[in-house]
Design brief:
single chain, 107 residues, mainly beta, PH-domain like, seven-stranded antiparallel sheet, 7 strands, 50% strand
Amino acid sequence: MFILNDGEALLMSILAYYHKSGIEQVIGDLKVTNQRTIFESKQHYILQGHIEFLNKDIQTVEPFNSFILVPNGVKITLKSEQEYKFKLTDRERLIHILLKQKESSTT
């Protein structure tokens, strides 16, 4: 269950697919706050997943195309080299928010 921490503000909440592998995907809610990024899978689906990381740990944020042609993916790479891929309808907004949070955490 998603709960904001003290001093935390929700910047974006959107339905997304966590792209676990070439054929494995988990549907859930992707939330970005001014401190962290959280993905929580929908409970009624077989594949479950929970991802949470601090925005200050983000190394890169880049677009990717699913099915080679569909421009709906975002790949987030952490400083630890862990990668997460999400597919969603508003990737440009997500990229903009994450890059802004990454920049503000380094200043």
